[in-house]
Structure formats: C-alpha cells, structure tokens
Amino acid sequence: MTTQHPIDAVITWVDGDDPQHKQKLNQYLASIGRQPKSADSTRFRSLGEIDYCVASIIQYAPFIHRIFIITDEQTPSLVERYKGTDWEERIAIVDHKTVFRGYESVLPTFNSLSIETVMHRIEHLSDNFIYLNDDFFLMCPVEPEDFFQNNEPVLRGSFKKQAEFRLSKRMRDWLGFSRNPDDPSFKRSQELSAQLEGFKKEFWRIGHVPHPLKRSTMETLFMTNPQLLEANIDYPLRHGNQFSPVALANHRQIKSGQAVLKSDFEDLNIKPGRYSPRKLKQILTDSPAKFGCIQSLDQAGEKQQKIVLDWLDKNISNLT
Fold it and tell me: What domains appear along the chain, each with residue ranges and CATH number?
C-alpha cells in the first residue's frame, strides 16, 4: 500500500525559548494589550518532545516516506543527528512562509489551528499523510493499515452530541456563564467543523492521537471554500471562533462514506503534573497504548519529568 499510496508524516513544532520567537510573541501581545490564555507559555515550550516524536516514527513506522516539520524560522537539533543516515533526505523543515505563501499578511502566527489549515500546502506532500503535534509519539510497531485502509483514513473517535444538545451547556447558559472566545476549546473547534459539513446534532470527536488525512480532501475543501481558509488563518492566537481543519476533513470523509471509523483510541494521553510520581510511573508502565501524548511536560515537577523522560528513553531507542 505504501508503494502505491506513500504515507508522509507532518509535525508542527515551535521552540518557545527561542529569543526570536519570544520577541515576535511579545510584540503581538503588546499590540493587543493583554495575554490571552491561548498565549500561555506551556503552549510553546519544548523539552525535547519532538526528538521522541521523530525517533518513534523512525523506529516504529519505517514505512513513512518523508517527515515534514513545520516551523517558524527554526530548526530542531535532531536534523543534525540524522545527517549521514538514510533519513537525512527524508526529514524536511518547512517554514511558515512556505505554507502561508500568498497569505504572508497573517504572519507571524502562534496558532496551531491556523497552521493546520494550510499544512496541506506543503510542496511534494503525499496525498496520504499523518499529522502529529510535537508531543505525540508512537509506543510500539504500527502498520500502514493502522492509519489507512483501502486508501481511506482510519478515524479514531466517537459520535458525541453537540453543545446545544447537552444538558450541561443548557445549565451553563441558564446560570449565565458564557463562552469566552479567547479560551478556545478543542471540543468546540470540532463541533464547528461538523456544522460546516452539515452535521446538525452530533460530531465525530477525536482525541490527541496521530491523525491520518488526505491532502486531496483538504485541497478540495479550501479550493471550493477559500473564504473558510482565509477566515481560519486570520487569528494570530487560537480563538473560539476557529474550526479544526483536521475535524473538518474528518467530517468530509465521513459524509462521503470514505472513512474507516474506529471507536478505540488506543492512546495514552496525560499531563504528568497531575499525578504523583508513583501513580505516574504505574500509568506509564501499565499502558497498552499504541499512541502517546504527553501534554505540558514543562509544568510537571522535576521527579515527574525524569520519570517520563526515562520511560521515553527506555521505549524509544533511536535517538542517536
């Protein structure tokens, strides 16, 4: 399947400690006179998670054709590590200016949803690709069929009621609690995507797992509705009015009957700072998951960070 339909990987990454990045972000925050929650430092800080993300792909998914890393005038140190190996020519750095070509006026951007909206514009990207955040990684060997079957994406998730049909939402409205657009919701962005594709009451809720996508689907969506792309990339920081491009593509695949729906996420998604060292070690040791997502590792204590990094070192060996 990978010969006839090669599969690429796309990763979004930022080094939040880079002085140039900090300067760009601080200038934007000064221009609006406030710091929204979507500008919290944890969204941009990196503790080397991308090293494990890329190494896990190479170790557990060697069928991946190329790995594209989207950045803003940055280059992760791992590029140097793979020089002289078979992967030197298969790891490519893609700058924001490349995927935002023609829309440079919205740069700089610090918004993952905006970047996801244009990631299909990577030059030479295969039609079938897997999108990962830099804190995603594979935890065991996987096959192409874990992501695409009969050339259709395998979508892990489940149908859920949209907010307007949930009792909790009606209760919040009754109590006078309104949604803050500056506090974007992962779930809300998926609901908006479903509505754009004509889903009235339900939406296909996805988790923090690698997302198989079709470049041709995203191209069709935004070529026929260029105003959607333009509106979604016009936010320098994540905003509650934005839809999820991944979820939009998913709902288009579901609507057209060209998706394999899988209710088992097969994932481990944790924020280490929420657990005691003992509980964290138990969770990591006992997990049977195929996919992992370690969120906000920078906010965990030193003991929790060491447990996670030691566990990653043990399970992902291709770091040299």
Answer: 7-141+207-233+261-315 (3.90.550)
